[in-house]
Amino acid sequence: DARVTQTPRDKVTEMGQEVTMRCQPILGHNTVFWYRQTMMQGLELLAYFRNRAPLDDSGMPKDRFSAEMPDATLATLKIQPSEPRDSAVYFCASGRHGDTEAFFGQGTRLTVV
Amino acid sequence: QKEVEQNSGPLSVPEGAIASLNCTYSDRGSQSFFWYRQYSGKSPELIMSIYSNGDKEDGRFTAQLNKASQYVSLLIRDSQPSDSATYLCAVRYSGNTPLVFGKGTRLSVIA
Q: Which residues of chain B, if any, have pLDDT below 70?
């Protein structure tokens, strides 16, 4: 059953704490996207990687967000320090370069109090 | 700035009717167009893709693309209550770029 796996599914944290979200892309997919979804803004691209190299992270607040791909089976999105305005659902999606579809994970619902 | 616009809805249709969802995009060079369905609390799932002008049919779903008007639509025939969800329009400028999403249209099919 090929699917994108994200952990944790839900995270509640206090303002100022570090948050790390993880994503395992579909095996064989070499492109990974991080999106954030809120009611007001919809789905916004934060960053994406191809063959583990970051191609665009212009959607991320650089002072607090960082995204990495330590290996082909793991992508991470880190927020330090977290703020209440970071509360959202964070989706990871993966695809194959040259293909047009992107497949989404179940998301991480982050609440910063 | 590439933008994708959708009416937020809610769009309410009776069971068995045709639901028509619309989307416009700003970048004339866009090449690939997608419709995703998202149930409340779930992740987006791809239901249709279209790349050339005209209609593309898949079961009860028809995607329509008009590049001259920068307009893409999704028709759902014989709407069912299980079709009630938010429908996201997504556009890709080229095969190497990420999808740009609209904010979605919430569809409610009334039994």
A: 1, 95-96
Q: Report CA dihedral (B44, B49, B54, B60) to the nearest 10 degrees.
A: -60
- Is A33–B98 a contact, with Cβ atoms under 8 angstroms apart? yes
pLDDT band at A1 (very low <50, low <70, confident <90, very high): low
Give me B25's structure tokens: 């995009």
Choose among A42, A101, A103: nearest Cβ to B102. A42
| Residues of B with Cβ-Cβ distance to A97 under 8 angstroms | 95-96
| Shortest Cα distance, chain A CAs vs residue B101, angstroms | 6
Residue B22, number of CB atoms within 10 A of its CB: 16
pLDDT in tens, A76-88: 999 999 999 999 9
CA gap A66, A2 in Å, rounded = 27
